Amino acid sequence: MSDNDDPQAESEALETRTREILARYTDRELVVQRWLAEVEAMKLRDQAGRAQRRADALAAEVECRELELDAFVTSSVDEFLAALSELDRGDPDD
Known about the structure:
Layout: H1 7-89
């Protein structure tokens, strides 16, 4: 009697083969999941990089606006003080 004629042996062989196939499938599925996780991580790093560059650009713009505002205020104060000085000298016709 050969193994092919033994239903128990055939069943065990089929079960073993099924487990091997499932193990390979599971291994491949894990590899695919790992790849997908790596792709997602790359996307997140890219988004973070773009967000950081945007934040840096906005910070530079804010700094520029602060400098412009400071220059404007300084100029305005200087003009005000000059006008005040002219008033302090008074009008000689008075």
